[in-house]
Amino acid sequence: MVAALPPTGVRVRVPAKINLALKVGPPREDGFHPLATVFHAVSLYDELIAEPAPAGEFTVEVTGDDAELVPTDDTNLAVRAARRLAEAYAPAEGARLSIKKTIPVAGGLAGGSANGAAALVACAELWALDLEQEELLALAAELGSDVPFALVGGTAIGSGRGERLVPALARGCYHWVLAFSDEGLSTPKVYGRYDDLGGLTAPQPTVSDELMNALRAGDAAALGAALDNDLQPAALTLRPRLRRVIDTGLDLGALGAVVSGSGPTVAFLAGSESAAIELSVGLSSEGICRTVRRAVGPVHGARVVT
Fold first, then answer.
1. Which end of the chain has a smaller Cβ tally under 10 Å, C or N?
2. pLDDT at residue 2 in the model
3. pLDDT confidence of residue 5
4. Where does ATP bind (predicted)?
């Protein structure tokens, strides 16, 4: 039996993302790398509950997978998001936040960004703010590159630092198998290694026509062949064991494989639900990753649930 949600609380469910493509340019003057990416939201979720608190009081508690790795002070992105929303629209409010983690920490799946987006949606509802999505997106872009996509979900093309979004012309539902590693990867370290390895010389990266055509056609086989991540070589030098994970999944019949974001999670595309089940069983039996989860995509972004 599921415990009833307190009548004053708001529960939000928010998905993980994978990057179907991640093209990275050389560092800009501000230190950020220009990106061209295709975000894809998948059915692996964190949940956040927001409850009222005195004005200016913002706290968070975290349970679930990797909870001990998540900060619970003012550096927590959900706390930062709630505080920023209050500063902009509700200075007389506060919030007590509770996060239940399923998305791995430092896994390349934007779990922290997802929590920030969930806090924006939950607190806007909690405080009865009548905000347009564009207003939440503006705040989300201040908080982090992946936060805006966690709000909207689906499949979208990201540019700039990833915060500028346009919907992708995409058809179909895709079956994914996600292989989680024993420990996370630091995004700054991966970008640093990417730069050490030479990076790209093109000032503005672009996503391949092959990948975009596959999405428009809903062609899973073509999409699997077009999955692409410029950060993958850097992630593999930092976690050489990922090469075996990728090779094993492809040998087991995956249509394609890609390290998601800065890693170390590897996303495998399967041709069907039954193929995804077989692939997940095969990967699990090999004992080469911490755990394996199946997911489908695309799914909606952060949403209030009852």
1. N
2. 44
3. 47
4. 104-114
Its sign, for the CA torsion 150, 175, 246, 291, is positive
Looking at the chain, which residues constitute the CATH 3.30.70.890 domain(s)? 174-297
Return d(Cα 161, Cα 17) in angstroms, integer.
16
Tell me the binding residues for ATP. Answer: 104-114
DSSP calls for 159-212: EETTTEEEE----S-EEEEEEEPSS---HHHHHHHHHHTT----SS----HHHH
- With a cut of 80, say whether residue 247 has pLDDT above it: yes
Distance between CA atoms of residues 62 and 48, nearest Å: 9
| pLDDT of the residue at 161 | 79
| pLDDT tens-place string over residues 67-104 | 999 999 999 999 999 999 999 999 999 999 999 999 99
**CATH architecture assigned to 10-168:** 2-Layer Sandwich (3.30)
Backbone phi, psi, residue 303, to 5°:
-140, 145
- Calculate the CA dihedral of residues 248, 253, 259, 264 and round it to 10 degrees: -40
pLDDT tens, residue by residue, 250-260: 999 999 999 99
Q: Establish whether 23 is a catalytic residue.
A: no
For the domain covering 174-297, report its CATH number.
3.30.70.890
List 17, 65, 101, 228, catalytic entry: 17
Q: Is 230 a catalytic residue?
A: no
Where are the domain boundaries for CATH 3.30.230.10 in the chain? 10-168
Q: What is the mean pLDDT of the chain?
A: 93
